[in-house]
Amino acid sequence: MNKLYLLIVLSCLFMINGNIFASEVEQEKEDKFDVNKLIMAHIKDAHDWHILDYTDKAGNKVPVSIPLPIILIHNGQFDIFMSSKFEHGHKTVTKGNNTYLLDDNTIYLADANGELSYEEKEGAHIVLNEKPLDFSITKNIFSMMIVSVLLLLVFLSMAKAYKRNLGRPKGLQALLEPVIMFVKDEIAFPNLGNKTNKFLPFLLTIFFFILFNNLMGIIPIFPGGANVTGNIAVTMTLALFTFFAINLSGNKNYWKHTLWMPGVPVFIKPILAVVEIMGMIVKPVALTIRLFANITAGHIIILSLVSLIFIYESLVMSPVSVLFVLFMNCLELLVAFLQAYIFTMLSALFIGMAVEEAH
Questions:
Q1: In terms of C-beta density within 10 A (0-12 exposed, 13-18 middle, 19 or more buried), how is residue 208 classed?
Q2: What's the Cα-to-Cα distance from 223 to each of 139, 179, 227, 232, 328, rounded to whole Å?
Q3: In percent, how much of the chain has pLDDT > 70?
């Protein structure tokens, strides 16, 4: 029965996703359907949260989106306005001495004619306009804010529940306590031993932050659908936190074995030191690419399977596409947990190697 409920939920999500997707491609039917363009628009970050498109009575395509704050700095001028001012890239925005325009979700300063200047290079358009310092609240940032608030609400409510009643956990406690104990007993303790309590808050934070963002990314409607952990800047930042946790917590034994390894000939030690320092850099790079690549690949595959319906424009492909997408959505649920587990496990392993005492 539980499997049936899961299948019904996934089917509903697919139908919602398919309706949103269909509204976006309806306008493109007159031209050749561009799968790459549509997929990249979904997995890239944006300055507004696109919901859907519809066609008005005049036959014009009308996008529906949630505007987000634009925060820019240029020539000492600090400008704040909503992304709706750009009207989806169709208008420029003038603030004081600066005129801004939006092209492919990137904000540029307009040239003397109030336009973009291009340079043709190897068949590609290279934008020559200067960019302001952009501190805008983008779709991915807004999604991370939502997840952060959600995490605070969940765990603060759990903490209050434990203070009120130390007995058998109920509700949300019963759901999340086994996951928390799994992270502690199966990830943290085997790698950190008696240092578990010191690093457990960090490991739990990155585990649930990655997990919640992965799960939110599977939901096709607002506030889900953002490709947060499929953004390499986000995964790199998470990996850098692990990098600093490793090297700032590393003990004397760790640095001794990294920079001047004992028990080997002196002339070999500088070579090994270079190799070990390269290993220090490779660890966060591996964490960054693994999470980014797996999550992005999942989004691309699902969108590609939905695109089959519009590429072939045939009802015959619809059942095939639906079945494959349902299978991929089930697989993405597994990947959401698996990638959070792998990132946390490797972080605990690397930190454990840095704080391990000499034998």
A1: buried
A2: 10, 24, 12, 21, 21
A3: 89
